[in-house]
Design goal:
- The chain has helices at about 15-20, 30-35, 40-55, 75-80, 100-105, 115-125, 140-145, 150-155, 175-185, 215-225, 250-265, 270-285, 285-315, and strands at about 10, 25-30, 60-65, 70, 95, 110-115, 130, 160-165, 185-190, 210, 235.
- The chain is α/β, with parallel strands linked by helices.
- The protein has one domain (about 10-315): 3-Layer(aba) Sandwich (Indigoidine synthase fold), CATH 3.40.1790.
- Strands 1, 2, 3, 4, 5, 6, 7, 8, 9, 10 and 11 form an 11-stranded mixed sheet that branches.
- Helix 3 (about 40-55) runs parallel beside helix 13, helix 10 crosses helix 13 and helix 11 (about 250-265) crosses helix 12 (about 270-285).
- The longest helix has 29 residues, at about 285-315.
- It is globular, with a radius of gyration of 18 Å.
- Bound molecules: pseudouridine-5'-monophosphate (PSU) and manganese (II) ion (MN).
């Protein structure tokens, strides 16, 4: 029997209520928890990020697929499951890009959503603001591997504002920026004219537009809608504070080693990003983890403020 009604993600009660009342909501991705951070720290971080959103007066909506059901907003048990906490449920937590959603739904799988799958499900649920660490993008050595994250193409056709510390510095950052330009994705620097460098405050690459207030971002979002062009995302590049960045010299040295290791061990596909992030944590004595978390915290806080500016605009009928 054909099914005509689209599959809408299950919203947590808190998220549903906030959307009904036009209160600010921030989507959070779960791949960073399941595959980007070491256990058991990942569960603490997941909880901390949700609290951070709440402390800014917005509602958190962590996105994941549980037993084949897409969720926007997880309860405690759901978050524990995604973080792989002991006793939180059996079976693997898969990494789900947006192309993996259909087989995950059909097969009843449990998985964490990447930026692409999170943006897709959050936009489908009516959310407009999303915070993450660093986006996926064009990998170094693209000419041989053609490894480019599905994040970019999905963001080219999804109307959502993504607050990030740039793209992961394990990537080819200039090539990723070129690709974003080709795809027509707007990029703003938040308080900077340089594209952030994930673990580093700056990637050294310029951005064309700088904003300094959440209300300015909300104004760009409104203009995007008013222009009624292709339904692309808006990227807000929010740099990690210089005092909390990874030492750039250490970063470059350790990354070169990790890239060589990945090549030698033949790591490919979905495993590349988690492998490199893990190697960086191991070889910087955890310093890259702290820089990553500092970036994510800053992004989550800013996303909550942008979500508040956005709902305030709507409330004024702007
Ligand atoms: N940001 C982080 N850590 C992460 C990621 C982002 O600070 O682990 C995840 C995001 O979910 C992003 C994914 O979508 O890495 C990119 O993976 P890939 O390169 O395989 O597309
Ligand atoms: Mn990839």
């Amino acid at each position: 029997m054909p099914q005509h009604s689209p599959l809408v993600p299950v919203l947590s009660e808190e998220v549903r209520e906030a959307l009904d009342r036009h209160r600010p909501v921030v989507a959070l991705e779960s791949t960073i928890l399941a595959h980007g951070l070491p256990r058991p720290r990942n569960l603490l971080v997941g909880t901390e990020l949700e609290e951070l959103v709440r402390s800014e007066g917005a509602v958190p909506a962590t996105v994941a697929v549980l037993d084949g059901v897409p969720h926007v907003g997880l309860d405690k048990a759901g978050l524990e499951r995604i973080a792989g906490a002991p006793g939180a449920g059996d079976g693997p937590v898969r990494k789900l890009g947006h192309r993996d959603l259909a087989p995950a739904v059909a097969g009843g799988a449990t998985g964490a959503t990447t930026v692409s799958a999170t943006a897709f499900l959050a936009a489908r649920a009516g959310l407009r603001v999303f915070a993450t660490g660093g986006l996926g993008g064009v990998h170094r050595g693209w000419t041989e591997s053609q490894d480019e994250s599905a994040d970019l193409a999905l963001l080219a056709r999804t109307r959502i504002t993504v607050v990030c510390a740039g793209v992961k510095s394990i990537l080819d950052v200039p090539a990723t920026l070129q690709r974003l330009e080709t795809l027509g994705v707007t990029v703003l620097g938040y308080g900077t004219d340089r594209f952030p460098g994930f673990y580093l405050t700056s990637s050294g690459e310029p951005v064309d537009w700088t904003v300094r207030e959440p209300a300015e971002v909300a104004a760009v979002m409104a203009a995007q809608d008013a222009l009624a062009g292709p339904e692309a995302a808006l990227l807000v590049g929010n740099p990690v504070p210089e005092t909390e960045q990874l030492d750039p010299e250490l970063h470059d040295r350790v990354l070169a080693g990790a890239l060589a290791e990945a090549r030698e061990s033949g790591i490919s596909g979905q495993a590349v990003t988690p492998f490199l992030l893990e190697r960086l944590v191991a070889h910087t004595g955890g310093a890259s983890l702290e820089a990553n978390l500092a970036a994510v915290r800053g992004n989550v806080r800013l996303a909550a403020r942008i979500a508040a500016a956005w709902t305030a605009r709507a409330g004024r009928g702007a």
